[in-house]
Amino acid sequence: MPEKPDDPDDTDAFAIEPSPSGRLLCGGCAPQDACRLGVELADAQDETVRFDVVCPRSWHGGPGVAHGGWTAAVFDDVLSIAALRVEPRLVTKSLEISYLRPVPVERPLEVLARIDRHAGREWEVSAEMTLAGTVLAIARADLRTRRPHHFARHEAWLARQPPSASPSSPSPSPNRTHTES
User: Fold this and answer.
1) How does DSSP classify residue 34?
2) In angstroms, rounded to a whole number, what is the distance separating the alpha carbons of residues 139 and 120?
3) Which residues have a Cβ under 8 Å from the Cβ of 148 and sit 6 or more positions away?
């Protein structure tokens, strides 16, 4: 018997909805009603969404500089939120980032994100991260509206994968080559 769309165990019913405080947060941050990356929605006008962002010191990659992975995660989050205001069932298809200057930790940053194009299930979005008007990094992403059973297909695929190796298991031979199937 198919599950009802409002069934909490139906992973494909998952959609980003505003939190109790009105924020659009990912599934990992929603239970705490706070973004662990330091992203706050500041203003949304027409096609542009402005975010206030502060990189927590715990995300430094070098002395006083944000880890590039933090910058990528912030862009993935804000680019999605720009489109999630319109479509709550999106996934990231691709993400491109150009790092122009080091991103400082514990400094107020601004990120402007916008929807550049939308056709059917395809979304193109872009953003720039600035400090006091200086562009530090730019990003663009292709998003896609999920098809029905997106997460169920992933769970089924994952269930067919071999169990993870334990940390004490020997690693594969470095001479072993990967083949596509």
Assistant:
1) S
2) 22
3) 12
What 3-state DSSP class applies to 41?
A: strand
| Concatenated DSSP letters of 45-78 | ETTEEEEEE---GGGEEETTEE-HHHHHHHHHHH
Q: Give the DSSP letter string of 68-129.
A: HHHHHHHHHHHHHHHHHTT-SSEEEEEEEEEE-SPPBTTS-EEEEEEEEEEETTEEEEEEEE
What is the token pair recorded at 56?
Answer: 């927590």
Nearest residue to 84 via CA among 113, 42, 110, 111: 113
3-class DSSP state of 13: helix
Cα–Cα distance measured from residue 26 to residue 82, given in angstroms and rounded to the nearest whole number: 13
- The structure's pTM equals 0.73
DSSP H or E segment with residue 138: strand 134-145
Please state the length of the chain: 181
The torsion angles phi and psi of 113, rounded to 5 degrees, stand at -125, 150
Summarize pLDDT for 43-73 with one digit per residue, the tens.
677 778 888 999 999 888 999 999 999 999 9
Q: Per DSSP, what are the bridge partners of residue 140?
A: 96, 126
